[in-house]
Amino acid sequence: MAAGKPYAVLTGDIVASSRFIREQGGRIRELILEGELRVKEHFPSAVHGSIDIFRGDGWQMVVEEPVSSLRIVLLFRASLLAFAGIDSRVAVGYGPVDYLSEDDVSTGTGEAFTLSGTGLGEITKPVRLNLNFPPEFPEVETRALNTIASLIDLQVQRWTRKQAGAMAGALVGLTQRQIADSWAEGPISQQAVSQHLDNAGWSQLKKSLLFVEYLLASLLGLSG
Fold it and tell me: What is the pLDDT of residues 38-48, one digit of tens each?
């Protein structure tokens, strides 16, 4: 990793936001802020400042603990899916930053911002997730990370709202009992949570996510 603290810049936009607003009277801004609130609740030291929302359905978040970036992406998307059944495309750019505002993070500059913005522009259907790394990073590792991320993304796109709700808890380490007791519509059985997690692919996804975090720590010089 080049000199300078590594960051992860997340840039995204809501999928089919116009249809959601037209058909359900949805308020995109409020949903994005609810997703940010869920992330900050469980990763209070990871997120820099506040999320920026632009063009109605676009958003940007800066993560100071880049190893957790994919988990944060998944938590954010799970929250949107559980809240309202909508999803977001997300590009994550890794690298140093040159300037970072406390109030308007989207005014930041540096490689992580550039890679994130470029990465979002490179996303094409049906993909909704892209990890973008500095060019000097080993291609074998970065291609492996994106391959794993694309398979995780495929699974996320198949989540139901109930599966996303269960996954939002599992991603931050809640037990099945804790997820069941804190269910948004009222407590449900632990067996129901277990079924939601199984159908969402949590057992397989967890192993993939842990490996991604291990590899990111190594690539970004944050291991050991």
Answer: 999 999 999 99
